[in-house]
């Protein structure tokens, strides 16, 4: 055998040895079976997450569903979504406001008959006095002060005031003139008005803060948790220019994502809502709050001017779990009436409570101290 043949035979043997041995392992980044298993696992986890989330949103509380009645759906003209409302007992009418899809069209104020759910009329609210420029953004808060004023909040540091008589007498489609505004800003402080409540000649103006307020003094430590918002209270009197007292008389420290406050049977009710979890309504005794001394809130000279009260984490007596999207609410006839907006999330398509008014009866009459 020649040297050349020996070399060839040796090379053949080496190749045979490599091919007949154990299968070579691919590096993990080339192992397609590994990625297939990981991919399928992720798909299963994502499907399970959406299924659980959908079930939580459609039925966050069996008690809520069993005790709730959808009073009526909101008008859907121009993609209207409800955010704010109040009830006028004199005319048995719900006042409902919010936003529309187009930022160039006016945000309407709908007046809806509480007994039939029929739309009585839709009006537009002047934003700049004397110029017939109407609100085009989101109306977040609404409160009726007897037969004197209707107050509107838009998340800004001011309140818009309209004459109740002008709203009552206006024809559908008309623009209601702005009577005046009330500033919620000083050189060192401001309140971003998100929700409004009228109760016993006091106007409650609340902030909706997600994490931290830019004004450091608003971030109050409550049992190790930062409460970043305030509810500021003003006396109301029709003799004031827009009915609101010149300075606040009291304030409450509140947690994040609060959307409303109301009162019934010596109880205070506070609602919270976010785009990622079910809404809640908390029930408190009206004397269960801790005084945290005097604070400077919208104080012209920076001096401590109001008593501040804390909503502590352990002073509520009940908590009601609600579907996502609950906004302002009122307590009336032993029921909680809630307005639900469109949540503008993927989960909105699964919710049966969206852009509607819901009457919820959680046995409020049984609340005894």
Defining traits:
26 strands; 6-stranded mixed β-sheet; 369 residues; 39% strand; globular; disordered C terminus; alpha+beta
Give the helix/strand class.
alpha+beta
The low-pLDDT segments are 6-22, 345-350, 365-369
- What's the pLDDT, averaged over the residues? 80
Q: Biggest sheet, open or closed, and with what strands and sense?
A: 6 strands, mixed
By DSSP, the count of extended strands is 26
Radius of gyration: 29 Å
Strand content: 35-45%
Question: Briefly, what is this?
Answer:
By secondary structure, this protein is an alpha+beta fold. It has helices at residues 3-20, 32-58, 62-67, 164-169; strands at residues 68-73, 81-88, 93-99, 108-113, 119-128, 133-134, 141-145, 149-153, 158-163, 175-176, 180-183, 195-199, 202-206, 220-222, 225-227, 229-235, 250-254, 258-264, 267-272, 279-285, 290-295, 306-310, 316-322, 326-332, 335-340, 356-360.
């Amino acid at each position: 055998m020649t040297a050349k043949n020996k070399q060839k035979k040796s090379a053949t043997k080496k190749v045979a040895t490599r091919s007949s041995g154990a299968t070579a392992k691919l590096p993990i980044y080339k192992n397609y079976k590994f990625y297939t298993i990981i991919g399928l696992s992720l798909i299963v986890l994502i499907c399970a997450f959406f299924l659980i989330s959908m079930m939580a949103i459609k039925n966050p509380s069996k008690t809520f569903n069993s005790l709730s009645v959808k009073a009526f759906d909101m008008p859907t003209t121009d993609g209207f979504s409800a955010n704010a409302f109040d009830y006028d007992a004199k005319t048995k009418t719900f006042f409902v406001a919010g936003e529309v899809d187009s930022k160039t069209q006016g945000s309407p104020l709908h007046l809806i008959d509480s007994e039939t759910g029929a739309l009585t009329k839709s009006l537009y609210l002047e934003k700049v006095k004397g110029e017939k420029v109407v609100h085009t953004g989101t109306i977040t808060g609404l409160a009726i002060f007897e037969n004197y004023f209707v107050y509107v909040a838009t998340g800004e540091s001011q309140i818009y005031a309209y004459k109740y008589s002008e709203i009552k007498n206006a024809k559908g489609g008309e623009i209601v003139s702005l009577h005046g505004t009330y500033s919620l800003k000083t050189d060192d402080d401001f309140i971003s008005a998100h929700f409004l409540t009228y109760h016993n000649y006091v106007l409650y103006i609340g902030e909706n803060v997600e994490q931290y307020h830019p004004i450091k003094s608003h971030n109050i430590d409550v049992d190790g948790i930062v409460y970043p918002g305030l509810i500021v209270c003003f006396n109301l009197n029709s003799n004031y220019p827009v009915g609101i007292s010149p300075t606040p008389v009291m304030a409450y420290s509140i947690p994040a994502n609060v959307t409303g406050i109301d009162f019934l049977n010596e109880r205070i009710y506070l609602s919270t809502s976010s785009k990622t979890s079910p809404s809640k309504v908390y029930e408190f005794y009206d004397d269960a709050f801790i005084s945290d001394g005097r604070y400077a809130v919208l104080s012209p000279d920076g001096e401590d001017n109001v008593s501040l009260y804390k909503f502590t984490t352990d002073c509520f007596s009940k908590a009601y779990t609600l579907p996502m999207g609950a906004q302002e609410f009122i307590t009336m006839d032993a029921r909680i009436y809630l307005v639900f907006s469109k949540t503008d999330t993927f989960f909105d398509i699964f919710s049966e409570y969206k852009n509607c008014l819901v009457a919820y009866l959680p046995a409020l009459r049984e609340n005894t101290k």
